[in-house]
Amino acid sequence: MRQDSQESGTASGTQATATERAAPIDGRRRRSERTRQLIIEAFLLIVRETSQAPTAAQVADRAGYSVRSIFERFPDLGALRLAVTDRAITEARAEATPVDLSADRTTRLKERVATRARICDKWLPLWRVMSAHDETSPEMRSRVKLIRELVMDQFDAVFRPELSSLPETEHRHTLIAMEAMTDFESWARMREYFDLSYDEAGAVWFDALDALLPETPAVS
Questions:
Q1: C-alpha closest to that of 102 among 92, 91, 111, 89
Q2: Closest CA relative to residue 155, chosen from 200, 202, 116
Q3: Which of 44, 51, 72, 110 would you call most buried, defined as having the most Cβ atoms within 10 angstroms of its Cβ?
């Protein structure tokens, strides 16, 4: 009995010691992850302000950490750019306004244009940073492709009644045209080069998409 009691006490002591050791480790991990997220946020803030990829020193200064802290969490600036891009993709997907798929054509067009305009206006600076590294980074190229495919998937779902009547190849080509028509650079050209207001640029997209889509099938 005494031996069993001693063994039980030893086991409990071992578990308690392990728990005590794990607590500081978990705390360090949480702090490290928080630092990682603050570094990502600092990168994003600088990009939005300057439309350029910041240096490690600029990110460190904005985040309030040392350059060493950055490279303890990211092997290089390319890895940091990828982490920032992944964060942006997650946020943009969460920001997309759900569209009532049973709504009429005009309502669906308005909601889809509003979502694309809002996302392009917010994330255009980061898109330009991503695009600048598209040719040299296979990982970034895959993110750019993913974003384009996500936009096409959203158009396909929202305008299924109109697009379902098209042959497969024409269906795919129409989606490609819709994505290209409403991409970041299209928004930038309208806003920066042609000096259109936010609402005017949205109206251009609305009319162009409406003209491109097949007729909406009559409800039987």
A1: 111
A2: 116
A3: 44
Type of residue at 155: F
Q: Which residues contact 14 (CB under 8 A, 6 or more apart)?
A: none
Spatial neighbors of 219 by CB under 8 A, at least 6 apart, are none
Question: Is the separation of the CB atoms in 44 and 88 below 8 Å?
Answer: yes
151, 179 Cβ separation under 8 angstroms:
yes
Token pair recorded at residue 141 = 């190229």
179: its two tokens:
């994505």
How much is the pTM? 0.80
39 vs 69: CA distance, rounded Å: 9
Contacting residues for 54 by C-beta, under 8 A, at least 6 apart: 43, 46, 47, 62
| Contact call for residues 178 and 147 (beta carbons, < 8 A) | no
As a residue count, the chain comes to 220
Residue 9 makes CB contacts below 8 A (sequence gap 6+) with none
Structure tokens at 210: 């409406």
Mean pLDDT by 10 residues, the chain (220 residues): 49 53 64 90 94 93 93 93 93 82 94 95 92 82 93 95 95 97 96 97 98 88
